[in-house]
Amino acid sequence: MSTTTTEATETIGTARSGDPAPAPAVMTPARGLIRATFRVHQSALWFWGLLVGLAAAGLLWAAGPGYDAAWAAYVKSGCAETDYCTIGAAYTRYDTAVSLGSTALTLAPLLIGAWAGGSLIGRELESGTAKLAWTQSVTPARWLAAKLAVPAAVIVSGTVLLTLLNRLVWWREERLRHTLGTRDWFESAIFAGHGTVATAYALLGLAVGVFAGLLLRRSLPGLAVGLVGTGVLAGTLQSNRHLLWPVDTIVSKTADRDWTGELVDRGFVTSTGERVSDVACTDDSCGRTDAVSFYADFHPSSHFWPLHLVETAIVLTATALLVWAAFRLLRRRTGGTV
User: Fold this and answer.
1) Which of 170, 166, 154, 16 lies closest to 100, judged by CA?
2) Cα–Cα dist 319/210, whole Å
3) Based on the domain organization, do 219 and 308 belong to the same domain?
4) Residue 167 and residue 262 in one domain
């Protein structure tokens, strides 16, 4: 090797040895907030995963061997030839597994509201952990956004999974359900567990809890208000569900009104055209003699999705307003430093 080549090689080696070492990877504030949220609330994450996992396992079993066993027991019992009979343990186990999925989705908003008010927000404000995070190059607004976005992603994934499995069971059990006349679509738990409403209410519980925690800044009061507030809002909306879509009405000359679906009101029409509800009466005409026809207001099964989508829109609007109010409250509490 020539002297010139040797010198060039040494120069290159020296230059390489003098290169600065690569900078270590720096975790961005967003990633740090996400990791911190998972780490601090890992017990809640495990509880949610266990709840969703148990309910999902029960629904999968119900959609497969559980339904097959219940149907076989029904056929074997000869219920088609009798007015009344009991299927036995097979159907009881199947019904328990199906109910587990609906119950999990019904209770989820209350549990989420209590957890968000008490642990997610209230405890961190009470202990000063939130203020410490705000001094570590994390703005209050970004902190709150992470507190909302991370749980919301986990909640939506779980509720959507259970909703899809509930619909799978509903489709699978159609023959048995119609034969036995069980589980009407308008029952509260069934209605919520087979569409978008369950996810919307779960997010509403999160928003109520977060706002309660920011407002009270203490864990136990935040937990209580998150639980009660979610229950009151959800109960109010669900009790007025039948008002969210126009009802169908049938009119008959006799009191034998034949409707299929959720009955909203029934009664009779007088000779003057007045509609009188007879729901609270002991007889169809409430002791009056001026009834000329009888009516029934009801929601048929075709109203399932209209009712569902309208209620979902209302719940998500309330959720968005609560989130907006939470950011406004945080901005006021931190003096506009967001």
Assistant:
1) 166
2) 11
3) yes
4) no
Length in residues, the chain: 338
Residues 257 and 162 in one domain: no
Can you tell me whether residue 271 is helix, strand or coil? coil
Model pTM score: 0.85
Residue 177 has pLDDT above 80, yes or no: yes
Tokens of 249: 């009405």
pLDDT band (50, 70, 90) for residue 271: confident
The domain tally of the chain equals 2
Q: CB neighbours (10 Å) of residue 68?
A: 13
- The alpha carbons of the chain give a radius of gyration, in whole angstroms, of 30
Give the separation between CA 292 and CA 297, rounded to whole angstroms.
17
Residue keyed to tokens 């070492």: 21
| Amino acid residing at 162 | L
Give φ, ψ of 65 to 5 degrees: -65, -30
Phi, psi of 13, deg, nearest 5? -60, -40
3-state secondary structure of 279: coil
Within this chain, do residues 289 and 264 fall inside the same structural domain, yes or no?
yes
Cα–Cα dist 227/231, whole Å:
6
**Which range marks the domain in which residue 152 is found?**
42-244+303-333
| Mean pLDDT to the nearest integer, 293-316 | 94
176 and 113 within one domain? yes
Q: Where are the alpha helices (DSSP H) in the chain?
A: 3-17, 29-40, 42-61, 67-77, 89-115, 123-127, 129-134, 140-172, 174-180, 188-193, 197-216, 219-239, 304-333
